[in-house]
Design brief:
The complex is a heterodimer.
Chain A (H helix, E strand, L loop, with lengths): L21 H6 L6 E8 L2 H13 L5 E4 L5 H6 L7 H27 L12 H27 L23 E6 L7 H10 L3 E7 L1
Antiparallel strand pairs in A: 1-3, 1-4, 2-3
Helix pairs in contact in A: 4-5
Chain B lengths: L24 H13 L5 H27 L14 H25 L9 H21 L26 H34 L3 H11 L6 H34 L11 H27 L8 H31 L3 H12 L3 H13 L7 H5 L1 H28 L14 H24 L5 H6 L9
The chains are: A alpha+beta, B mainly alpha.
Chain lengths: 206, 459
């Protein structure tokens, strides 16, 4: 998008001829370490195709960024399993058992009260609250589980440094190959991203 | 309607698309976020907000007076100890149910049309539940001790009585409010990120940035996010059904004729959805027009909502017929008298107005031409909202005012303060709603992107 001009991204430090001198290199700020290399795509199909080829090329520490959930994308980068359903199940079980035995303990053990001659453990009357507690704890498990697994809140992340990344919440699609991937090689990976159709391939600094 | 885009052709439910053709990721994002970020706040917003805020003051005034004088301020007394406070509680919480139905149940049923209206409907749910929750608390007599309802270790050494439907209600409504708020917030996270990246001013960047929690649209995040959202929908679906079921238990577990009926849970749930859809229509028809959202909320939505309203209205109608039938077929003297009293007693006007509003009026929705006329649809929704209020009046008041012993019969008249409280909650509801449409995206931006044609991944 031409109207989304951002300041250009300086990816390398200026190298001076006398750079080898100790006095000069001490003045130089420490070179930023690399998070990865990122390329842009204009549409989801290109991103998914590129992500597939990246995965097939043997890269594993890759990630895609899109303005909306794309099922094929997480498959393409080899991320298909999440323990979230298990967390929610455990949450639901804890909520259900906790809800029931909370009532049992209060009505039978801690404060037995004869209400209309009903048994202390009038379990059918405890079911509605048991159900509500199940849903409540399971819902908390779903929301907090999702946030914790996603390591959110995380106000800073290197990808926010990438050019045009503000468009990841509008209409732009991004693919990043992280520097800690075993197959990562700065020049080769940059070249590779160019061959799979990425535009504006650039380094992402930590 | 004249406000429809020309290229949509004749209005037919199967040919009208969920979103108008020609929309793109960029245009959807810019249009919805500009309502919050760029567009000048329209004059009608200030006007509407001011009126709502003034009415909201009535609520605060009433509550203040209530705290000083006690619930004698209201018209409730023996035998009608549950009056406007409980019927308004049920009315408000019922309205909330359409939001959860749209956001959760229609998600599970893969109804794409829900996408343009779910955010708004969820907000409506939250704000309606906030109004509903106030009533039982204010009705406690000593509202400052409302926390006694929750089981917490206390120096008195006592615990709540969990065999009472009123305790079930505490858990159902508080769980419902909590889960609805979480569902709503989770749905907003990616949109907060969109607003963070679009906002021009520092305070808004900071505000939306904090709320977005660093959301960046990572594929791994989306995967877990979608799973969490789906699971929440799966949890909210039985929850919403349970809430109004439990609200109906407040009545059905009692032995008062007119309350003690097994049909109450399904009949209450259908009534809640009926009232809720009426409220969604009542609010979206003007909003869609005022913000020019016809491309997002198309006639398809209007037709579908009208049909849901008609269907649930018929279930509610069946409920009324069965109530009368049970009354007669039970052979029970008191049950028969209750039905007779509803139809011919001192409150019979309310009963027949209810039949007119809730059973006869929605029948016009069978006719496609009337369904397509937004003014008529809006008026029908208004009538249904009033009808559902009358229904709760009939259930609460006519059942209580003449029970078993003629010596304990009485009449109920809402006091002025009953009305100021009710009007005040309407003011509070609209105050929250106006703030919502001004500061948050009223249509889910990221979900709108998913239903655009360009979102299809071609392999």
């Amino acid at each position: 998008m031409s109207d989304e001009k951002r300041e250009s991204f300086s990816e390398t430090e200026p190298h001076e001829a006398d750079d080898l001198h100790l006095s000069v290199s001490r003045r130089r700020r420490v070179a930023p370490t690399l998070y990865g290399i990122m390329g842009e795509f204009n549409n989801p199909s290109d991103l998914v195709a590129a992500a597939r080829r990246t995965y097939e090329a043997g890269y594993r520490r890759i990630n895609g960024y899109s303005p909306y959930p794309i099922e094929e994308l997480s498959e393409a980068i080899g991320f298909t399993r999440t323990s979230l359903p298990l967390i929610v199940l455990i949450g639901g079980i804890i909520g259900g058992l906790g809800g029931f035995f909370m009532q049992y303990w209060m009505e039978v053990i801690a404060y037995p009260l004869n209400v209309g001659g009903k048994p202390y453990n009038s379990w059918p009357a405890f079911i509605p609250i048991t159900f509500e507690c199940t849903v409540l704890v399971a819902a908390f498990a779903a929301v907090l589980g999702m946030l914790v697994l996603n390591k959110l809140p995380q106000p800073y992340h290197p990808v926010f440094n990438a050019p045009n990344f503000a468009l990841a919440t509008r209409d732009r699609f991004f693919l990043v190959i992280e520097a800690n991937d075993p197959r990562f090689n700065h020049d080769e990976t940059t070249q590779f991203l160019n061959t799979v159709g990425a535009r504006n391939v650039s380094d992402v600094e930590i | 309607m004249a406000d429809e885009p020309q290229n949509l052709g004749p209005i037919h439910h199967s040919t009208v698309p969920v979103v108008a053709p020609g929309l793109t990721f960029a245009s959807v994002t810019d249009k919805i976020s500009s309502i919050v970020l760029k567009r000048k706040t329209p004059l009608w917003w200030f006007l509407g907000f001011a009126i709502s805020f003034i009415l909201f003051q009535l609520l605060l005034l009433t509550i203040t007076k209530l705290l000083f004088e006690g619930i004698g301020l209201w018209g409730v007394n023996v035998p009608v100890a549950w009056g406007m406070d409980i019927l308004n509680f049920v009315w408000w919480i019922g309205i909330g149910h359409a939001g959860t139905l749209i956001s959760a149940i229609l998600l599970l049923l893969r109804q794409k049309w829900r996408t343009s209206i779910n955010r708004f409907a969820e907000a409506m749910t939250l704000f309606a539940v906030a109004q509903a929750g106030m009533y039982p608390i204010m009705h406690l007599g000593r509202p400052w001790l409302a926390y006694w309802l929750f089981p917490y270790p206390n120096t008195m050494g006592i615990w709540p009585q969990f065999r009472s439907p009123l305790m079930w209600d505490v858990f159902a409504v508080s769980t419902y409010a909590t889960v609805s708020a979480m569902f709503w917030f989770v749905g907003l996270i990616p949109d907060f990120a969109t607003l963070r990246d679009r906002a021009r001013s520092k305070p808004f960047q900071l505000l939306y940035g904090l709320l977005a929690m660093g959301w960046r649209g990572s594929a791994r995040h989306w995967h877990r996010y979608e799973m969490a959202y789906l699971l929440l929908a799966g949890l909210a679906t039985p929850l919403v059904l349970s809430v109004h079921t439990i609200v109906s238990f407040d009545f059905a577990v009692g032995i008062i004729p007119g309350w003690h009926a097994t049909i109450f849970p399904p009949y209450f749930v259908a009534g809640a959805i009926y009232a809720g859809f009426a409220m969604v229509l009542l609010l979206t028809i003007p909003l869609r027009k005022l913000y020019g959202l016809e491309n997002f909320i198309t006639m398809r939505h209007m037709h579908n909502m009208a049909k849901v309203m008609l269907a649930t209205g018929l279930i509610v109608g069946y409920g009324y017929v069965m109530e009368a039938f049970f009354g007669w077929y039970s052979g029970n003297h008191y049950e028969r008298f209750m039905i007779w009293n509803r139809m011919h007693g001192p409150y019979s006007g309310y009963y027949w107005a209810l039949i007119l509003c809730n059973i006869i009026t929605p029948q016009f929705l069978w006719i496609k031409r009337l369904r397509s006329n937004l003014l008529i649809l809006w008026l029908i929704s208004l009538v249904v909202s009033i009808g559902m209020w009358l229904e709760r009046f009939v259930i609460v008041v006519t059942s209580l005012h003449r029970d078993f012993l003629p010596s304990s019969w009485g009449m109920y008249q809402p006091s002025t303060w009953d009305w100021t409280m009710f009007i005040g909650t309407i003011g509070f509801f609209f105050t929250l709603l106006f703030l919502f449409i001004r500061f948050l995206p009223m249509i889910s931006i990221f979900e709108m992107r998913t239903i655009l044609p360009e979102a299809e991944v071609e392999e």
